[in-house]
TrEMBL record:
Chain segments annotated as coiled-coil in the UniProt record: none
Residues annotated as domain XdhC Rossmann: 169-311
Stored InterPro entries: MoCofactor_Util/Proc (IPR052698), XdhC_CoxI (IPR003777), XdhC_Rossmann_dom (IPR027051)
Organism: Pseudomonas marincola
Protein name: Cytochrome oxidase I
Segments forming domain XdhC- CoxI: 15-71
């Protein structure tokens, strides 16, 4: 499943190639609560067709009315980019379905040139991070390859956004949990690959749309060339498969590296990597484990929800509160249980 950003850009390019008139809309600034984050995009075709989203739907309807229906058969105009703001008053917020106090500012690009889309998509399809800069005074778009995922910026005159290839996820171990994680990851826009050299596992894999590799995981990680949009998760429960793959992953710039296992297994893994492979506590700080957030999950589907919640939080640079840590929550639960046992012992003494 392609990421929504790539889908918007590719669709806008295809519409322009077909001779359609197109409006590209980007969320440039927000105040208070907003349905979509800055950088979110949508493309609007002159006949009212929309791909992508900048709100819950009401603002899209208003843009369709203003820039298609209201302009009749001619469709979208061709002019310099403009900035529009929605939700300034409480009446507008109510009308457009914005949360209480929510305001957002949109940049409208009328009939953007097709050539920069071709260049941008070529870079993204080849795995490049590309910074797209728009000068609102001229409508000029400049593209720059970059190695850092810079934050979206807008100063009223220039808009800059870093776009990258779709997010990827490499799963090690083709068990039941991996199937649920793969499905959820695809729904969230990840391109998923499963790696497992064990025939009895890989031959029963049944999730469509997932790349399947039956080789040793450490070799696969190296060939995968993990980047800042890659998550690598070891789910095999087999140290012979997981450990070497994790060592390779830790040498990469993958944004998320994690391994399934209990607190005891997680500590044993860390001890092995330090004792036998020269890792340190500091070098293992990027290794998540036990993976997931604490929601009391027991079944594979519930554990997959927990794991994907943590992956998405890391992807979105959200610092999770300590009480959501599985290790901390279970440790506190153990201590609470021990206190109860001790209290009962004292009462029965």
């Amino acid at each position: 499943m392609e990421s929504i950003d790539l889908l918007v850009l590719r669709t806008a390019r295809d519409w322009l190639s077909a001779g359609d008139r197109v409006l590209l809309v980007t969320v440039a600034r927000t105040w208070g609560s907003s349905p979509r984050p800055v950088g979110s995009m949508m493309a609007l075709r002159n006949d009212g067709r929309v791909v992508g989203s900048v709100s819950g739907g009401c603002i899209e309807d208003d843009l369709i009315h203003k820039y298609t229906t209201a302009h009749g058969a001619e469709g979208l105009p061709q002019r310099l980019p403009e900035v529009v703001r929605y939700g300034v008053s409480s009446d507008e917020a109510h009308r457009f379905g914005l949360p209480c106090g929510g305001t957002l500012e949109l940049v409208l690009e009328f009939m953007p040139a097709k050539e920069p889309f071709d260049q941008l998509l070529a870079g993204l399809d080849s795995g490049q991070l590309v910074r797209r800069e728009l000068d609102l005074r001229t409508g000029q778009v400049n593209l720059h390859n970059t190695s850092t995922a810079d934050q979206f910026t807008f100063d009223g005159q220039r808009m800059s956004s870093t776009l990258g290839p779709g997010y990827r996820m490499l799963l090690i171990g083709a068990g039941a949990l991996a199937e649920y994680v793969a499905v959820m990851a695809q729904f969230n826009g990840f391109q998923v690959t499963i790696c497992d050299p064990r025939p009895q596992y890989i031959e029963s894999w049944s999730v469509p749309g997932v790349g399947v590799i039956q080789e040793m995981p450490d070799d696969v990680v190296r060939a995968f060339s993990p980047d800042v949009r890659t998550a690598i998760i070891a789910l095999s429960h087999d140290p012979k498969l997981d450990d070497l793959a994790l060592l390779e992953a830790l040498q990469s710039s993958a944004f998320y590296i994690g391994a399934i296992g209990s607190r005891r297994n997680n500590q044993s893994r860390r001890d092995r990597l330090i004792e036998h492979f020269g890792e340190t506590q500091e070098s293992l700080e990027r290794l998540h484990g036990p993976i997931g957030i604490y929601i009391g999950s027991k079944t594979p589907p519930e554990i997959a929800v927990s794991v994907m919640a943590e992956v998405i939080a890391v992807k979105n640079a959200v610092a999770l509160p300590g009480e959501l840590s599985i290790a901390k929550a279970k440790t506190e639960s153990d201590l609470s249980g021990a206190d109860k046992v001790q209290s009962m012992s004292l009462e029965n003494a």
